[in-house]
Amino acid sequence: MAEQDRSHARPIGWGIVGTGAIAERFAADLAAVNGARRVAVLSRTLATAETFASRQGFAVAQADPDVFYALPQLDIVYIATPYATHERFALAAINAGRAVLVEKPLADTPLAARRIAEAAEQRGIFAMEALWSRFLPAVAQAKRLIDAGAIGRIRQIDAELAFAQTLDPQTGQWNGRDADPTLDLGVYPVSLALYFLGLPQRWRVERTRIAGAGAVSSATVQLQWAGAQASLSCGYDREGANAMILRGEAGALRLDRHFLQAPAVTLFKGRGPALASNRVGRLADRLPLPGRKRIAAPPRGHGFTHEIEAAMAAMREGATQSPIMPLHHSVATLEIMAADR
Predict the structure, then answer these.
(1) What DSSP letter does each residue of 67-96 carry, written as one string?
(2) Rounded mean pLDDT, 71-82
(3) How far from each other are the two terminal CA atoms of the chain, in whole angstroms?
(4) Helix, strand or coil, per DSSP, at residue 109
């Protein structure tokens, strides 16, 4: 669609459930998207909802879910609450006839995710997991290069996503984060691996726990396809390389640090020992690799803009799912992450 036509497309009314930090950033990006109307916000208390609505330019503040979901101007609801509540809020929205964009992960269990997908399918309503990384310009650029054969057939994917956190032994949480980094961080590399290679044939997940506290400090995920494999890791116990490397028969691609909000993709042409390495950090800019080319593709705003535009485009076309982030991939990611639970 031409840029001139985009501003005249059918407006879409947005509501937000939740008023935390991620909701704040999402709302700020929403304000920059043509045709996105900021209709309402839902919070547990009316005062919190009113403060958020006033700050972010939403017309209505609500603490009553029934009144919120029944608002006639509301087309789609972004769910920004803790993931243990995603199923409850998503099903309430779908049952009220509203489309949903659910912050990652889609739910806390594969079964809950399947219930969301089934409800949306039965009602013919658009539903999508808000895993923003799939919609980033750098990821789109990487996909175009792969589809054009720039690195040949993918044989190996390596990724690390880890941020050093401090464990609170009283709560079992890491700086207020969830006790298990697999659903907080691990979903990013797993979901992107599925985006590039499809559903794997086999997988294995191994978690490392802190003695005594029982909290998960890190995890590794091994995925296998016919002729390809992935070695992925996440954790709160270190500061990681936080890049994703896709190695092919004719070169490699790196989604640069931090790849969950990748600012660029680097293309390495040719073969050699450096490209064969299984260590994410080996493909650093200082290495004398052949044919290196960095393609800058920074996200707009906080990074949510691209998934917002994709959801709105799908809704305007009458689609019930996104071809970039289909629900069966969201369910499969949770099935993988639940492997050893």
Answers:
(1) HHHT-TT--EEEE-S-GGGHHHHHHHHHHT
(2) 97
(3) 45
(4) coil
Complete DSSP assignment for 244-274: EEEEETTEEEEEPSSGGG-SEEEEEES-SHH
User: By mean pLDDT, which of 67-71, 113-117, 210-214, 337-341 is the weakest?
Assistant: 210-214
Sign of the Cα torsion 274, 199, 139, 131 reads: negative
Distance between CA 195 and CA 246 in Å, rounded?
12
What DSSP letter does each residue of 139-159 carry, written as one string? HHHHHHHHHTTTT-SEEEEEE
What is the rounded distance in angstroms from the CA atom of residue 70 to the CA atom of residue 79?
16
- Residue 204: per-residue pLDDT: 97
| Proportion of the chain above pLDDT 90, given as a percent | 82
49-58: Cβ within 8 A, 24+ apart: 49/19, 51/19, 52/16, 52/19, 52/23, 52/24, 52/27, 55/24, 56/24, 56/27, 56/28, 56/31, 57/27, 57/31, 58/16, 58/27
Cα–Cα nearest to 105, from 201, 198, 178: 178
Q: How confident is the model at residue 287 (pLDDT cuts 50, 70, 90)?
A: very low
